[in-house]
Amino acid sequence: xxxxxxxxxxxxxxxxxxxxxxxxxxxxxxxxxxxxxxxxxxxxxxxxxxxxxxxxxxxxxxxxxxxxxxxxxxxxxxxxxxxxxxxxxxxxxxxxxxxxxxxxxxxxxxxxxxxxxxxxxxxxxxxxxxxxxxxxxxxxxxxxxxxxxxxxxxxxxxxxxxxxxxxxxxxxxxxxxxxxxxxxxxxxxxxxxxxxxxxxxxxxxxxxxxxxxxxxxxxxxxxxxxxxxxxxxxxxxxxxxxxxxxxxxxxxxxxxxxxxxxxxxxxxxxxxxxxxxxxxxxxxxxxxxxxxxxxxxxxxxxxxxxxxxxxxxxxxxxxxxxxxxxxxx
Length: 329
Prior knowledge:
Layout: E1 12-15, E2 18-22, E3 33-36, H1 39-47, H2 54-70, H3 75-83, H4 90-104, H5 109-132, E4 139-143, H6 149-152, H7 159-167, E5 172-177, H8 184-196, E6 200-203, H9 208-215, E7 218-221, E8 225-227, E9 232-235, H10 238-248, E10 252-255, E11 261-262, H11 279-282, E12 283-284, E13 287-288, E14 301-304, E15 311-314, E16 317-319
Parallel strand pairs: 4-5, 4-7, 5-6, 7-10, 8-11, 10-15
Antiparallel strand pairs: 1-2, 2-3, 8-9, 9-14, 12-13, 15-16
Helix pairs in contact: 1-2, 2-3, 2-4, 2-5, 3-4, 4-5, 5-7, 9-10
């Protein structure tokens, strides 16, 4: 990822005793690097979505744990704080437990956190290589929310096959749904595609079925948690797209690393769905736009059944829903 002035940077990293990250709430209007010297502040940044996207949340958790170790904090207490940041993204829990095991074994906090983040990037590159084989020249693709470099430390999950196809000289066009209420598609995915020179257009969330009826070849999305049977949680509105895609016979692929698979949760019914603040729906720029007295319901995610998934694009290859048990192996 190029910041346009200081060379390549990642979405999150640890430098000189500080966790540094791109504040994704400020994009696309300006690029702001936020610094944190206390792990609790990193937890707050995860809660407030300064950093977001399941793999990137995992890396943020790893760096929060590393920072806690550097500060001499109680590691079990820190792990509880980090796990409580957001309930749905499985990478958060995976990374916290991964770091806790290594820190208790006496491994270096910075090297361990960097190793986790580096591994995430390598997984995304492999996802890109595997997924690129599905993308044919001239394809019209559709995605939802943001599953690019910002959401994954670097490279991306759902956007990785798109990037690799573009780099291979394939012509692709991407429909980018705006992703209400926080507009990560419009503000982040479109920004990333623009940085890469990939042809795209932002569409209202409610226009997805219309454009599918006009001709979409493939839908690619990320995931925040994938149950053992292949049901998966992703940004609210994903299920809508899956229903429409199934109606029109359009394959829907889920791009995610192995760390997003939660084999301890049997089906999507066991996935906890985060409920966020009403004001994200009822306010714009701190000004209420909804009628007085009207409530808002604001789930951050929905669950799409495995039967609607054509395949899971992972760093280990592409698996159908009936094959994901092989991921354990």
